Amino acid sequence: MSKLNTCNAEALDTADELSSFRQQFLIPPKMDGDQIYFLGNSLGLQPRSLRQYIDTVLKQWEQYGVEGFFMGDSPWLSYHEKLIGTMSELVGAKPSEISIMNQLTVNLHLLMVSFYRPAGKKRKILCEQKAFPSDQYMLETHVKHLGLSPDDVIIEMAPRGDGMLFQTDDIIKAIEENADELALIFLGGVNYYTGQVLEMDRIAAVARKHNIRIGYDLAHAAGNIRLDLHKWDIDFAAWCTYKYLNAGPGGVGAVFIHERHHRNLELHRFAGWFGYDKETRFKMQKGFVPVLSAEGWQLSTPSIILYASLQASLDLFKEAGWGNLQHKQRKMQDLLWDLLQEILQIKPVFKILTPKDYRGAQLSLYFPENGRKIYDALIDKGIIVDWREPNVIRLAPVPLYNTFTEIRNFTQALNDLL
User: Fold this and answer.
1) What is the mean pLDDT of residues 363-392?
2) Contact yes or no for 300/107 (Cβ under 8 A)
């Protein structure tokens, strides 16, 4: 088989100042070594330090019982404060605008209570067509819960023509055409199927211009792309932590709530004891008084074990440096893009769905024919990518634990299979 022009992969790895972080993760093995794991967009790998972080919590429980909330090196009652600093840096927020809680879809329902307030003719929601199913189900059932019809209320933006990518100008046009009726704009910041990154800042600016609340699902964005949520002036966002943030399957979720909403005591919300004012929480008084930050949206006692799982990963992000990781990711994506283009010049049997100028770690490859066979063959070779019906292979090399040589090996294997 023809060999790709891959001579610089090893040189890039040799020059990589973040290469040692790969050793901080457990790579799924195969018979003759490690597999190539390109699925950080679905489930990040386990940090080697995770057991130590969880064991610390278990030992506190063993030694102090319930007093672990107040005693030990990391009292559980203030554990949240150890997480929000790094998390806020990753998403471009103030620490007070971040709350680590629940899971993604639960958080979206809670945020809808506060930020979707249909009144008069302003009751419609603009979202993208074929959003991740959980978002679709959340919107559908939340609207029904309010006694409204999803068909009447939800406006689904479709990509232009028969394409799969969204044009920012089309989204802006849809906002402006429906501005008098829109109560909320809710979009996925990075499309799970195509890997397209939306121009969230431009869209948010138009929402603000028309005084329409806007929120984003950032499940495929947090820990992946540069975000600037506070500066973009969005109202809210939510994300999971088990993809690029490596917090483990079912890891705790997180939310962003812009600080302008923190002191609005008229804002509707579902409340719980853990969102109550910290200074008077233990007086157990009637009448909800919220923490005047995003923590005021918390409900229940968090899982400290899930907090510890997230901290194990966030500490690695902090050590590596978010800017450094972003720089390496761009170099990895450039190499991957160039090698795939080299294949396509000779064998144009697939298409890169992800737009070159609006991408993060993920690339989605569209195969009109034989895509499933290619996917199965890659899996047999120990190259872990994933398949999305009806005809897309997704892969996402990430800078914390993937290498340039793995990108070279993947593209060479794909070239050989084709």
Assistant:
1) 95
2) no
Residues 268, 402, single domain; the answer is no
- Which of 319, 341, 359 lies at the terminal end of a domain, its last residue? 319
pLDDT digits (tens, 9 = 90+) for 106-146: 999 999 999 999 999 999 999 999 899 999 999 999 999 99
Q: What is the mean pLDDT of residues 19-42?
A: 92
What are the DSSP calls for 51-116, one per residue?
HHHHHHHHHHHHHHGGGGGTSSSS-GGGTTHHHHHHHHHHHT--GGGEEE-S-HHHHHHHHHHHH-
Displacement of CA 238 from its chain's centroid (Å)? 8
Burial of 70 (0-12, 13-18, 19+ CB in 10 A): exposed
CATH number at residue 330: 3.90.1150.10
Q: What average pLDDT score do residues 338-358 get?
A: 95
Residue-range definition of the domain harbouring residue 242:
79-319
What is the phi/psi pair of residue 375, to 5°? -60, -50
Report the b/e string of 344-356 with b at 16+ CB within 10 A: eeeeeebebbbee
25 within domain boundaries: yes
96/235 same-domain check: yes
Average pLDDT over residues 307-313: 98
Phi-psi map region of 269: left, alpha, beta (phi>0 left; psi -120 to 50 alpha): beta
pLDDT at 1: 45
> For the chain, how many structural domains are there in total?
2
CA torsion sign, 236 to 240 to 241 to 247? positive
* Token couple for 128: 């993208």
H or E stretch at 143: helix 133-145
The answer to whether 116 touches 184, Cβ cutoff 8 Å, is yes
Rounded distance between C-alpha atoms, residue 99 and residue 101, angstroms: 6
Q: Domain boundary at 264, 287, 319, which?
A: 319
Q: Are 394 and 362 in contact (CB under 8 A)?
A: yes
Assigned domain for 65 exists? no
Chain CA centroid to CA 100, Å: 13
The answer, as to whether pTM is greater than 0.85, is: yes
Indicate if the pLDDT at residue 201 is higher than 60: yes
Do 162 and 191 lie in a common domain? Answer: yes
Whole-number Å distance between alpha carbons of 77 and 304: 9
Cis peptide before 397 (omega within 30 of 0): no
d(CA 325, CA 182): 38
Helix axis angle for 81-91 and 304-320, nearest 10°, is 50
Q: Are residues 356 and 396 in the same domain?
A: yes
